[in-house]
Write a structure and sequence with these properties.
The structure holds 2 protein chains of 2 kinds. Chain A is α/β, with parallel strands linked by helices. Chain A has one domain: TIM Barrel (Alpha-Beta Barrel). Helices cover 49% and strands 7% of the residues of chain A. Chain A is built from 21 helices and 10 strands. Chain A is globular. Chain B has one domain: Rossmann fold, CATH 3.40.50.280. In chain B, helix 2 packs across helix 3. Chain B is globular and about 30 Å long. The relative contact order of chain B is 0.18. The chains are: A alpha/beta, B alpha/beta. The interface between A and B is large, with 45 and 32 residues.
């Protein structure tokens, strides 16, 4: 196809001109409202982003070893991946957990597992992020209980709980209870955090998963920020003052392949959120206005074919996140289309961040691409398109109403189908997959030492649970579960009751079952 | 098209379901968190010719043999089973030996899947 006939677009389908010229782009400096150019005046000169590799597999013991390894290799924060049974609020020995224990992350069924997970890790000194949603408050209670055991005051704890249930209904689908009950639990954590954990982010409002499900960059941006608005509304409804909790709302974006589109997305995110906080909510504290985010390079861009190409993809995506001003970053491993990261692969991923930080020079300047005609135009257009979506969802009655109507889910399904069709037709090239294939360099010709998780971990966890249930005070466990149930039925903040239950070594499954009894469970209407 | 086990990643299953519909097939998407029993029962009720299992969680070695076993128990062995997702080569080979007709790994084209089904199943 001749260049003249072809339409050039970003990966999300946004048309792109051959060249850009000076326009009317005036942005305040980094560190100045609305923070388009960054939330700090000196950005990475003052402090590098946190290098935080998402990690977890097989058993808490093996995961703990990987954490020690990664910290020794220079990562600067922890990020916990839990397995599917844990994510869905099931113990390792539940019937539905069979074959699933430890396959996607670490199995944590009780406080005992959490203690093992953080063995030798001083929670007062190491920031911990936990990717957990439906049972987030339970796992957070376990983490807080481990901090207690380490004699670390909660006020000193630094970290993040993902705890973004709205995006579960939209994209990741790890929901347990219905939306309103889930929002109550999230609001409980925001309220509890505002009082007790001033350095801990109780939510990480996420676009990553929305993008992984196949959305465009603008949809990722818009749905994430509108989810944020929903959490703010619920917290205000609870009676919290905006500046008491907004400074600790954090965000999580994808770092996808279209380089400039991603940087524009992050800049637009900061700008939109600052305006929302000031004009929609009247926030006064500067900390409420500054959007802080973690980024992860795009898992969905990794290929099975010629996996070493993934190192290049990850590096470019990481660079976009850094040029976009991320506060924290995870880089994917080259083998993740096959398995959870092997040790060698995750080391390369971490080194990618370190090369970026120490060798590339891009950290010397805040928003170094600011002033690029293309970037500034794309930033403005992204802001405008995202605001359109936010307005539409407002008109639908908010994000919960939009979810119930299937709106974000349908947008995502259409975008992902369109993208797949582009690949099928060859309109979009994926190197090594639909072009530049190589019969020689298939996975088995370039062996990578893949991580294998077998069923031994599951059996070990099951035995541990049996022993736990035998030695704990089951009368006390029952008492705490009854108290939790009563709180859940009422309007009391559930966090103190969850803390009592986890300290008594009630299991995750037992606690979630108690809540299932009160709230019921959610079944989605699939939208293809 | 079924999502067995706890895995909630449904992008692939939904895209393929739509592609199969566009290709003229009747497709029932079961939704998430289906047990092997639920899947086989739905297949029986809907009188399907093909069951597609989408699994990205690594639980395929526990789930797929169970589905095949249930199909045998219910004398539904004429129903073709195909699997898609994150399945290593050795596991794919083993699943095929157990009776799975095809395993589609990451990067498989919609075209290849449609062509395979059309070729294997009487219209």
């Amino acid at each position: 196809m001749k260049t003249a006939d072809r339409e050039f677009t970003t990966i999300s389908g946004v048309p792109v001109e051959p060249v850009y010229a000076p326009g009317d782009f005036q942005n305040p400096a980094p560190g100045e409202f609305p923070y388009t150019r960054g939330i700090h005046r000196d950005m990475y000169r003052g402090k590098l982003w946190t290098m935080r590799q998402f990690s977890g597999f097989a058993t808490p013991e093996e995961t703990n070893l990987r954490y020690h390894y990664l910290l020794a290799q220079g990562q600067t924060g922890l990020s916990v991946a839990f397995d599917l049974p844990t994510l869905m609020g099931y113990d390792a020995d539940h019937a539905l957990s069979e074959g699933e224990v430890g396959k996607c992350g670490a199995p944590i069924s009780s406080l005992e597992d959490m203690e093992i997970l953080f063995r030798g890790i001083p929670l007062g000194d190491v920031s911990v992020s936990m990717t957990i949603n439906s049972p987030a408050s339970v796992l957070w209670a376990m983490y807080l209980a481990v901090a207690e055991q380490q004699n670390v005051p909660w006020a000193r704890l630094s970290g993040t709980l993902q705890n973004d249930i709205l995006k579960e209904y939209i994209a990741q689908k790890e929901y347990i209870y219905p939306p309103r009950a889930s929002m109550r639990l999230v609001t409980d954590t925001i309220e509890f955090g505002a009082l007790h954990t001033p350095k801990f982010n109780p939510v990480s409002i996420s676009g990553y998963h929305i993008r992984e499900a196949g959305s465009t960059a603008v949809q990722e941006l818009a749905f994430t920020l509108r989810d944020g608005i929903e959490y703010v509304d619920w917290a205000l409804e609870r009676g919290l003052a905006i500046d008491d909790f907004a400074p600790r709302l954090s965000f999580f974006f994808n770092a996808h392949s279209d380089f400039f589109e991603e940087i524009a997305k992050y800049r637009a995110a900061r700008k939109i959120w600052a305006h929302v906080m000031r004009e929609r909510y009247g926030a006064q504290s500067e900390r409420s206005l500054k959007l802080r985010f973690h980024a992860q390079t795009a898992g969905c861009s990794l290929t099975w074919q010629q996996p070493y190409n993934n190192v290049v993809r990850t590096a470019l995506q990481a660079m976009a996140a850094v040029l976009g001003g991320a506060q924290s970053l995870h880089t994917n491993s080259l083998d993740e289309a096959y398995a959870l990261p092997g040790e060698h692969a995750v080391t390369i991923a971490l080194r990618t961040q370190q090369v970026l930080a120490y060798e590339s020079g891009v950290t010397n300047v805040a928003d170094p691409l600011g002033g690029s005609y293309f970037l500034e135009k794309l930033t403005l257009d992204s802001e405008s398109a995202a605001n359109d979506y936010i307005r539409r969802i407002d008109e639908m009655g908010g994000m919960i109403a939009a979810i119930e109507a299937g709106f974000p889910q349908t947008e995502i399904a259409s975008a992902s189908y369109r993208y797949q069709r582009e690949i099928e037709s060859g309109a979009r090239t994926i190197v090594g997959v639909n072009r530049f294939q190589s019969a020689v360099f298939q996975s088995d010709a370039e062996p990578i030492e893949l991580l294998h998780v077998d069923e031994a971990g599951g059996r070990r966890q099951t035995a541990k649970l049996a022993a736990l249930r035998a030695r704990r005070d089951n009368g006390n466990v029952q008492k705490t579960l009854d108290a939790l149930r009563r709180a859940a039925e009422g309007t009391q903040n559930t966090m103190p009751l969850l803390l009592d239950a986890v300290r008594a070594y009630a299991t995750l499954g037992e606690i979630c079952d108690a809540l299932r009894g009160v709230f019921g469970t959610y079944r989605e209407t699939p939208h293809i | 098209m079924a999502k067995p086990g706890l895995d909630g990643h449904d992008r692939g299953a939904k895209v393929i379901a739509r592609a199969l519909r566009d290709a003229g097939m009747e497709v029932i998407y079961t939704g998430l968190r289906q047990t092997p029993e639920m899947i086989v029962n739905a297949a029986l009720q809907e009188d399907v010719q093909v069951i597609g299992l989408s699994i990205l969680s690594g639980a395929h070695n526990a789930i797929v043999p169970r589905v095949l076993e249930l199909l045998r128990e219910k004398e539904m062995t004429d129903v073709m089973v195909i699997v898609g997702g994150i399945v290593p080569d050795e596991d794919a080979a083993a699943l095929k030996r157990l009776g799975v007709a095809a395993v589609f790994q990451p990067g498989a084209s919609l075209d290849a899947i449609v062509t395979f089904i059309k070729g294997a199943v009487p219209a």
